[in-house]
Design goal:
Layout lengths: L2 H10 L4 H24 L8 H4 L3 H36 L5 H5 L2 H21 L13 H28 L2 H19 L6 E2 L2 H9 L6 E4 L4 E6 L1 H10 L2 E5 L6 E2 L4 E7 L9 H9 L1 E4 L8 H16 L6 H19 L7 E4 L2 E5 L5 H14 L5 H15 L5 H21 L3 H23 L2
Parallel strand pairs: 4-9
Antiparallel strand pairs: 1-8, 2-6, 3-5, 3-7, 4-6, 8-9
Helix pairs in contact: 2-6, 4-6, 4-7, 6-7, 8-12, 8-13, 12-13, 12-14, 13-14, 13-15, 14-16, 15-16, 15-17, 16-17
């Protein structure tokens, strides 16, 4: 991820960027309309006295009232937004705060009310009356009135949007949809070309490579990796680049971020210029983001399920909805090739990537949910149902083995925690249905 892209994503996730642009647009609109009023004169306003007949005092009074009302409503909206963020953090997970902060509807509504306030101030200072040359920008004043009327609809929309956005189904659905878009974009994601078996054998048969670690210059989470630039670096330097950490991992300053090995003996070691180029391929920040980190999208849904299963909340329905969405996302992954970590170009291995496999994604999605299910029968049943859905989407042996392992773990946890014979029998029946599905797929190979 380039620095510019990271900077742009941070701007989009802020609450001030879009409102600032709207305030700037309001100032420009006020300047344009006032000058338009000044250039066309005011004789035409006499033909529409009910619409444009306000004098200087009337125009000042109306704009002052609108400005005062807008700044009051803007304060209310900011208070509601902060209250919503606090509620989302406590009821669901703090990982979702970034999603709400970059919600375009929230940003536009806040910017709309603040921009009307600024617009009224900008027009208000141009009104002249009394002993001065009389000047009332009728078009600008009428436009301010129109904005005030539209603001009523915006306020109603904002209240509806806030009330809808904090509902569990919409929170979970929004997080799942963003993750689904990311998975569709990332997989299959190619880094150069897949290394053939011959190219891998050439790498294995070559002399032992001497790996030179490149230390991280800051601590934080790996938010993105410019994989194309890594491949270009390996090609330009005739080297092999090995990622030491995957996207979403935490790196400590001074620890190995990436390692480089030269194919040919006698090549100059990696210098400061080459190290700088490698560091530019990595984007490191204080938190994980959803731009390239598919595991973070799953982690959001897992956190919602864990919070719902906590004794303080005990909301099984929310946990079940999270598991359903996790099953859908893993079913999407099961039907896609996650790609090989070894990439080649020009007949030689160039990059050894660090990335999760399908079993790792399954573990991220279901391990903690399973261990926190305790005696809740509905959670085990839904876990097995989600695994059944995933199993129907893949015939790959390694994927099926991982699904079967998760099913075994779910059954073992249920038999350990649930004592009611009726409930455990339902879970065993669901487990047998899943095992039958896996066996059918195996016999069809």
């Amino acid at each position: 991820m380039s620095r510019f892209r990271r900077w742009w994503l941070d701007l989009n996730s802020s609450l001030w960027f879009v409102p600032s642009l709207m305030v700037l647009a309001a100032i420009l609109a006020a300047y344009f309309l006032v000058h338009l009023d000044d250039s066309i004169g005011h004789e035409w306003t006499k033909r529409h006295p009910l619409l444009f007949g306000a004098g200087a005092d009337g125009a000042r009074g109306m704009l002052s009232s609108i400005a005062g009302s807008m700044i009051t409503v803007a304060g209310l909206i900011f208070s509601l937004t902060l209250s919503t963020l606090a509620q989302v953090s406590s009821q669901y997970t703090s990982r979702l705060l970034r999603n709400f902060m970059r919600d375009r509807s929230n940003q536009v509504v806040m910017g709309f009310f603040v921009s009307i306030f600024v617009y009224c101030l900008a027009v208000l200072r141009t009104i002249r009356g009394g002993d001065e040359r009389v000047f009332v920008p009728s078009l600008a004043v009428a436009f301010g009135l129109l904005l005030a009327l539209v603001s009523i609809g915006m306020l109603i929309f904002f209240i509806h949007h806030i009330a809808s956005s904090i509902q569990a189904a919409n929170v979970i659905g929004g997080a799942a949809q963003e993750t689904e878009k990311l998975l569709t974009k990332l997989f299959p994601k190619e880094l150069g070309e897949d290394a053939t078996s011959a190219e891998r054998e050439d790498l294995a048969d070559s002399e032992p490579l001497r790996w030179m670690p490149i230390a991280a210059r800051e601590s934080g989470y790996i938010q993105g990796i410019d994989e194309k630039e890594l491949l270009a670096f390996a090609h330009d330097t005739n080297a092999v680049v090995r990622m030491e950490l995957a996207i979403g991992s935490y790196v400590t300053k001074g620890s190995a971020l990436v390692s480089v090995a030269e194919y040919s003996a006698g090549q100059p070691p990696v210098g400061k210029e080459e190290a700088d180029r490698l560091h530019k391929c990595y984007s490191i920040g204080n938190q994980r983001t959803l731009d390239q980190d598919a595991g973070f999208g799953l982690r959001q849904l897992v956190d919602i399920a864990l919070k719902a299963l906590s004794p303080g909340i005990n909301d099984t329905s929310t946990a079940v909805m999270s598991i359903d969405r996790l099953g859908s996302l893993l079913a999407l992954l099961a039907g896609r090739d996650l790609g090989s970590p070894v990439r080649a170009e020009g007949g030689q291995v160039r990059v050894i990537a660090k990335r999760p496999d399908f079993a790792s994604y399954l573990a991220t999605a279901f391990d903690q949910v399973r261990t926190n299910a305790a005696e809740d029968e509905a959670i085990y049943l839904r876990l097995l149902a989600a695994l059944h859905t995933v199993a129907q989407r893949t015939r790959r042996p390694d994927y099926r083995r991982a699904i079967g392992q998760q099913a075994d773990l779910a059954l073992a946890a249920a038999e350990k925690n649930i004592t009611a014979d009726y409930e455990i029998e339902q879970i065993r029946q669901r487990y047998q249905e899943l095992r039958k599905e896996l066996l059918i797929e195996q016999t069809q190979q």
